[in-house]
Write a structure and sequence with these properties.
Distance between the termini: 61 Å
Order of helices and strands: HHHHHHHHHHHHHHHHHHHHHHH
Structural class: mainly alpha
Number of helices: 23
Helix content: over 70%
């Protein structure tokens, strides 16, 4: 009897709550401005409604100073990763031709909290504020944490993330003028090599081999972060010959060559994939052969299929064998892959 009473009470509560949630979600649909969305977020306790609001906020552009302040309030009061990402997405939609917001972003940049500075950097960058540059420079030039600090700790450090954002903004606003500063900061924190590789790939590539051979482990790590950076396709294309020369040299660090192989394969045309396969077949040693295989595997199109089949059938390393098979399945489906690899034949016991 008690169980039935409890069940009945639960059902009644759920039925009572459902209309309230539906009404709240309907209200969130009526909120059109950033300020209205913010007010609704603060006033509700429903996680369902808040999730709906967060999704809507990321597609809503701030149109007034009040909207900017509302975004800032949400960013500072609720240290939730998903909400903060939505706030930044909204901030990125602000009209670049909005000098009236400059005093606000300057005020945020002057706050001591890293989160406030991070918000100010993104806002100032969006409206191309030249007035804010000295403040952004001051943040970027601060002494970084010890370069030996584990990566996981660095990524969780708010000051480090804010400083990285400042350096990224300066690289885009000032170009090569900021390159010496970014080089110095990457010496302090190898993880910032990712910014060098992204924004200054052509200028930095010639240093990678020397850095990879350094007796300093931090400098070696910097080389790998640069090599792993997300590089613009035109920059990778412009340096393809330099990267190929590194891939062909068995005396160069194999991890560095693997990371460059990803770039070489990513930009490869069909004819270039054929050439990469010939390089693979002529490689003088197994590590170099694997480097060329990596380049072929990440290439696009069907010219890589013969090498994928070879690796799926014969590769000594399980990771290469399974990786090749997974790609074939993605391209052709399970049944055709089995046929291509001869796995569909009846096995008689």
């Amino acid at each position: 009897m008690i169980a039935l009473i409890l069940l009945s009470s639960s059902l009644a509560a759920a039925q009572t709550a459902a209309p309230a949630v539906e009404a709240a979600v309907s209200t969130s649909a009526d909120a059109q401005t950033v300020s209205q969305i913010k007010d609704l977020f603060v006033s509700t306790t429903s996680e369902i409604v808040r999730a709906d609001i967060v999704g809507k906020l990321s597609h809503t552009a701030p149109a007034t100073s009040e909207d900017i302040e509302s975004l800032y309030d949400l960013f500072m009061r609720f240290p939730n990763a998903q909400l903060r990402a939505s706030v930044m997405a909204s901030l990125a939609l602000v009209n670049p031709d909005s000098p009236q917001y400059e005093p606000l972003f300057m005020a945020f940049l002057r706050q001591p909290e890293p989160a406030a500075q991070l918000f100010g950097i993104n806002g100032a960058f969006r409206i191309h504020s030249r007035v804010a540059l000295p403040l952004i420079h001051a943040i970027a030039e601060r002494k970084l944490v010890d370069s030996e600090t584990p990566v996981a700790n660095l990524m969780g450090d708010r000051r480090w993330n804010t400083q990285k954002e400042a350096l990224s903004a300066l690289a885009q606003m000032e170009g090569e003028k900021v390159l010496p500063l970014l080089r110095r900061k990457a010496d302090e924190s190898p993880q910032l090599g990712a910014l060098l590789g992204h924004f200054f790939w052509k200028q930095t590539l010639p240093d990678l081999v020397a850095w990879s051979r350094s007796s300093n482990p931090a400098i070696q790590q910097k080389a790998l972060y640069v090599a792993a950076a997300n590089t613009e396709p035109e920059d990778a294309r412009a340096t393809r010959g330099q990267m190929l020369a590194i891939l062909r040299n068995p005396k160069i660090d194999v991890d560095l060559r693997h990371k460059l192989a990803l770039k070489v394969g990513w930009i490869a045309t069909d004819d270039e994939v054929d050439a990469l396969i010939r390089e693979h077949d002529a490689a003088p040693d197994e590590p170099t052969r694997e480097v060329w295989a990596v380049a072929v595997f990440v290439s696009r199109g069907s010219h890589k299929v013969p090498l994928l089949v070879r690796y799926a059938r014969e590769a000594a390393k399980p990771s290469f064998r399974s990786g090749a098979r997974i790609q074939l399945v993605d391209m052709f489906g399970e049944e055709k892959t089995k046929s291509m690899l001869g796995e569909d034949k009846d096995v008689k016991k």
